[in-house]
Amino acid sequence: MASKIKKIGVITSGGDAPGMNAAIRAVVRTCAYLKVECVGIYRGYEGMIDGDFKAMDARSVNNIINKGGTILKSARCAEFRTKEGRQKAYDNLKAAGIDAFVVIGGDGSFNGALIFNKEFDIPIIGIPGTIDNDIFGTSSTVGFDTALNTVVEVIDKIRDTASSHNRLFFVEVMGRDVGHIALNAGVGAGAEEILIPEENLGLERLLESLKRSKASGKSSSIVVVAEGDKTGRNVFELKEYVEEHLPIYDVRVSVLGHLQRGGPPSCFDRVLASRMGVRAVEALLEGKTNLMVGIQDNNIILTPISKAIKGHTKIDKELIRVSEIMTT
Amino acid sequence: MASKIKKIGVITSGGDAPGMNAAIRAVVRTCAYLKVECVGIYRGYEGMIDGDFKAMDARSVNNIINKGGTILKSARCAEFRTKEGRQKAYDNLKAAGIDAFVVIGGDGSFNGALIFNKEFDIPIIGIPGTIDNDIFGTSSTVGFDTALNTVVEVIDKIRDTASSHNRLFFVEVMGRDVGHIALNAGVGAGAEEILIPEENLGLERLLESLKRSKASGKSSSIVVVAEGDKTGRNVFELKEYVEEHLPIYDVRVSVLGHLQRGGPPSCFDRVLASRMGVRAVEALLEGKTNLMVGIQDNNIILTPISKAIKGHTKIDKELIRVSEIMTT
Amino acid sequence: MASKIKKIGVITSGGDAPGMNAAIRAVVRTCAYLKVECVGIYRGYEGMIDGDFKAMDARSVNNIINKGGTILKSARCAEFRTKEGRQKAYDNLKAAGIDAFVVIGGDGSFNGALIFNKEFDIPIIGIPGTIDNDIFGTSSTVGFDTALNTVVEVIDKIRDTASSHNRLFFVEVMGRDVGHIALNAGVGAGAEEILIPEENLGLERLLESLKRSKASGKSSSIVVVAEGDKTGRNVFELKEYVEEHLPIYDVRVSVLGHLQRGGPPSCFDRVLASRMGVRAVEALLEGKTNLMVGIQDNNIILTPISKAIKGHTKIDKELIRVSEIMTT
Amino acid sequence: MASKIKKIGVITSGGDAPGMNAAIRAVVRTCAYLKVECVGIYRGYEGMIDGDFKAMDARSVNNIINKGGTILKSARCAEFRTKEGRQKAYDNLKAAGIDAFVVIGGDGSFNGALIFNKEFDIPIIGIPGTIDNDIFGTSSTVGFDTALNTVVEVIDKIRDTASSHNRLFFVEVMGRDVGHIALNAGVGAGAEEILIPEENLGLERLLESLKRSKASGKSSSIVVVAEGDKTGRNVFELKEYVEEHLPIYDVRVSVLGHLQRGGPPSCFDRVLASRMGVRAVEALLEGKTNLMVGIQDNNIILTPISKAIKGHTKIDKELIRVSEIMTT
């Protein structure tokens, strides 16, 4: 490939996700394989503005494929939302001879990259790295599968104590304004009810469902609640509501929080990140820009970032139906 | 649905795989939901021949979604390969009023079911349960994803000691005559080389690759070897070969063996098994037979079992390429 | 042994802990081995009052050694605190021919057993089952070691995201009014500061410590807080306090909650529970009562329950010192 | 403390064990805390002979407490067994100004250190780091507890498949010539029989035991075999023997191998290693030498290395008895 691109930057931005390191490794090693220079940009756009760069070769990324977090660190950066901030960032890239970059992150990070490209015409390719799976153009984002396993393992533990005490637990999981984590992990954990932003069951139906569950002879119940759920009540308020209206249950609450972001990535996320990293570098060398790498039907594809950040992968209606049948 | 089918059997057969219990649970609960009776058939076809049956309701499958193995037990059964054996099995099903059954297993189990259907005209639907992912008509079999995570976690541990001692490890993984586990887990574990039946690199190339790896400054190396690899040497012989021809390495061997079959299923396998179990029961009630439930592009589809057992999901050529780039 | 005791009950009471099932199994199998009948009492003292009993033989406890929770269930029971409740319980035991029982639980459960023994003269032996390690007469309670591993694994995950974002996390762990979990898991997780009820550092010192940590070049910080900590502020208030007085940090909070009670027990807890279960049954057959089985210097010993519930295992002053040195 | 010792080396030697990094971290941070310089010696005695040293400060050991293996690497070194090799090593230490060192390893490494001390009068303190727990003077070596958890988790997985197929598994575990891993992990995993070097049951008794187990209604059996077992047969030969003499079983074999050495250390091992690292540095500064740090009854104590390497912690006879009762 006789590309004009001689030096590629790689940056992680926004919330971290397991598998980001595997994606960094793939970008760095693909550059090495294709004899292009590679530079790590630290602390997201903040580091771009500060010129916090480090040259990376194939050995810089040894033994990171199985590490959670991101060795490049990440940050949310207000200054990059200003023209001045982006100018500084561009000047630094220019000075360092960086011709293009791969940005690993979510929709906020992609949006920043699009604006930057429009202003300074520097090629960019995105890799979707977020546990929330809230990006259009890929059936799975890097980190989503790992987060599902983490949530399911934790709920397995909570069920041990729930069923020893015949208790009802409301478990809040991440996902911002979408319910992918809640729905999938809820089905995987055998939850009795799953509350997601996409479907507002209403509180009455929740009570009905819990009554039915108790009547059916179940000794314990887990209700998985997406953080973006639209019932208008958080898990603590749900606890109070149920205790008031359905006093047959001893209710507890668990907010899983940030533990969902960490841990060694699953095999799926490592492989996905590796494939995406390869394709991202190749796309830049082919002269492409403003695209996101995604996976669809087990093929790596490219989608305009402008589309990717507008939509979401739809919630799986069939899986909602499966979840209902499973709570029989 | 006004189906003639009033009582459905469920059976696990052949090698066990994580997620089989989730599939059993889904079959049982879907029957309960659709008001069809459900009967568990124990110990595979052996139990069918012995009439080892037990009625199952929604509560029979409480708290099994996260358990490895199969509560119905499994077995390989020589007698079912005889006409007499199958006649006994049929008589038992008849006596118990079982109109149809769902068989969870691999190609051998499916083949038995096909023959049985041809002889006795009893409807059957298959759910692919095997860690090997060697069935056509589904991008993933139940158990495959869990086995990948298990292998990758174990190799992470082996790498700890490998890199502390600058050693080379040959790690043999399962997969019968296909390389899906080896290729995916090899990429996920960051293996320096992956030997699979589908690609015979030859031993010379292996030596070249190991030399290059050492020269590049890597301190340790993991070579993942599929049990069905065609180099003509098992891992112990590979060790001897490399020690003789490339004495720069301190070589060790690890045969992972049956630990790859056990453990709590991953979230993906639990969800997959749940979806497949629902579809399997519905297909029977729709009057279908001799089909296997599969997943393709995140949709649950049906494939004739006769096709499913003839072919394999193809090894992913692009992933082989990714694996080569990653070992830079 | 020619003991008058022919039938032994086994009961789990109070909060559940990993390893309780291993203790149940040990009690049941030791009874079988010594040819004494064994009866499981369900749902703690509530089940004793309701006569919720089931005969158990060696096979009743197959495949439970690795399961969290308690197959006998547990409950806190107000009625057992009344004379009438205890009379009912005693009548049930009498009617079932139960001569003595082993109670697996914490200080509340032991106290109940002592009162019961005083009133009805039925021999009882206690096995300390609680994650909190707050019982005198044993260096470790069943469940403590598992909870430490669970906490440390979760904080490892939180650190992935903390260090990717240069954040400070306050992590609240269980332990009621003692700091054993916080101190041990804090040292094990490499926490920068550990707040326990036994040592009130004061908030000023916390700020100093965090300032020093930042100055020393650490990129992230974990502060482990025992739920019984005496600073007078919970983790949410600590977050606010630090944000106000030390705005150099981006602060997050995580309350681990009930996930700490579940999961497969560690090898240590399984072995400990097995040894304790054997000794508990033997002690009853030797005519002993009102004693608790404990471990000290790797020997299984007996302590009067009256002593066990009065005191606590002291917090390890040397370990506090180690924790300070480690945060250098 | 006004010690003559101004610079302390730290070295890991022999087989690696989980928790070695936690011990390194503790040595380094204690030096920093006490304002003594600290130097990492790489690749065991080989690196000492090669002068492979690196200055370490408190930040050099960030985020390693939870990593398996050893960041200092390890090796077995023939040259250090020669006078010439040791002279080179001493010259390097001298040139680097290293006054004393802490050696983390097993009996071979300790023996080397003793000889070295005798010849060159340089103070040395040992920290027992080995999964085998085969050192006198400490109830637990660093890495033992983690290895037990690893083995038990793996056997849990093997039991999933064993009990699905009613199989008998011989599982070989590490431990060199002692049976601590086999006995403890065997009890923890609920093994039906445990073969250790300290007790030769004889093959007849094994058959009796397996017959009894089958007759008692158990569906599967796990026999844990220490690698140093004295029955005169390895697990493959045991399989053949049982298949010939007790054809009621379908027998499989699993050699766990090096996966037992890796993985994140347990909380216990992290805390133990931290406490030992602190005491090791303090002992050197107090002018002590030729001692090993150990734990006894939860206190950190010092034992002459000459004693530590002569004996073993005795196998726990009471635990053997417990294991027999548990297989009822």
UniProtKB/TrEMBL annotation, chains A, B, C, D:
It is an enzyme of class 2 (transferase). One of its GO terms (molecular function) is monosaccharide binding. Mg(2+) binds at residue 107. Its main location: cytoplasm. It is found in: Cytoplasm. GO terms for cellular component: 6-phosphofructokinase complex. Residues 7-284 form the Phosphofructokinase domain. One of its GO terms (biological process) is fructose 1,6-bisphosphate metabolic process. Pathway: Carbohydrate degradation; glycolysis; D-glyceraldehyde 3-phosphate and glycerone phosphate from D-glucose: step 3/4. Keywords: Allosteric enzyme, ATP-binding, Cytoplasm, Glycolysis, Kinase, Magnesium, Metal-binding, Nucleotide-binding, Transferase. This is ATP-dependent 6-phosphofructokinase. The lineage of its organism: Bacteria, Pseudomonadati, Bacteroidota, Flavobacteriia, Flavobacteriales.
